[in-house]
Design a protein that fits this description.
The chain is an alpha+beta fold. The chain is built from two helices and six strands, in the order H-E-E-H-E-E-E-E. A six-stranded antiparallel sheet has the order 1-2-4-5-6-3, covered by helices on one side. Strand 5 and strand 6 form a beta hairpin. It is globular, with a radius of gyration of 15 Å. The relative contact order is 0.21.
């Protein structure tokens, strides 16, 4: 469902995704279409990958409904302008209704380029085939 969303098929068309319990990896091949005026990827790309990785670390253990990002703090460390980048998300805290996850973004050489922490809450949107969930 995630990889078939318009944002990933039309804009972020090289996105990869691996999910396991309390953990996820989101990858993307850098393209010039993601660059800001100084020739490196825009901060919005960092945010998308970090938020998606943290989201899936949480939703990997929430089996009945989607979770929603309620806040997300991002820290940019260094620019990236080539290769494949990968965000690793890990669940850090869980309660019946609130979750916290951290994610780190790495460049192709394995150097950390950004990190973030997000809070997530359960929505009322059921994970069902009616919305394309399999």
């Amino acid at each position: 469902m995630y990889l078939q969303a318009n944002v990933n098929t039309m804009i972020f068309d090289t996105t990869t995704c691996k999910i396991s319990e309390e953990y996820s990896e989101i990858g993307l091949t850098i393209s010039e279409k993601y660059f800001h005026a100084l020739g490196a990827i825009h901060g919005s790309i960092y945010f998308k990958l970090l938020d998606d990785a943290a989201f899936f670390a949480v939703n990997s253990i929430v089996k009945d409904v989607f979770v929603l990002t309620t806040s997300f703090n991002i820290n940019l460390i260094r620019p990236a302008n080539q290769g494949v980048i990968k965000a690793i998300g890990r669940l850090k805290y869980k309660s019946p209704s609130l979750f916290t996850a951290q994610s780190t973004l790495y460049n192709e050489a394995g150097k950390e380029i950004a990190f973030g922490t997000g809070n997530f809450a359960k929505s009322k949107i059921l994970l069902s085939e009616d919305i394309g969930y399999k």
